[in-house]
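Entry 14. Ran structure prediction on the chain below.
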Amino acid sequence: MKRALISVLLPIVVVLVGVVAFIWWERGAPPGMRPTPEDTQPSTVTLDHRGVHMPITAHLAGRIEQRMDGETFHLYPVFDKGDRDGRHARVILRTRLTPSTLYTYEERTVTGFARPPGRLLPKSARDAFEKRGYSLDEHLVLVDEWEDLAGTPPKG
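Output, C-alpha cells:
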C-alpha cells in the first residue's frame, strides 16, 4: 500500500516542484510574486533583468492592439526618455492600459516583467511593427507592465 502511494505521489510532487521552479526561474520570483524591479533604461535593459523600472518615451503611433486569452493588450515600441526619433526598438511594452489616441508620444515610467517576447509577440505583430517603420533588435525585450504601478516615479 505504501509503495503504491509513493509511486503515485512522488511523480506528482516532482512535476509540481518542476513547474514552480520553472515559473520562478522564468519570472525571477515565485508564482504569485514579483521580482524586485531594477532601475534601467530601454537602451540598456537585457533579459538578465527580471523586473524593471524605467523612464521611457513610448511611440504611441506604432501601437498594435492584441487580443489574447480574452484580454486586450496594447503593444508599442519604447525608447529612452526623450528619444522621439528612434526606429530600432530594443524594447516593446505590453500593457492593458489604453494609451491616449490624442498623442503620438508619451513620456512616463513603467514597471514590469522583462522577458523574451516568445509567444507574446507573434510574427504577425513583428511584421506590423516593421510596416510602421520600426526594426526590432535581435535581443528584443518585452516588458509586461504591472498596471497597478503604472506611472510610479523611479526609486532614489
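The first helix runs from residue 2 to 27. Will compare against last week's run tomorrow.
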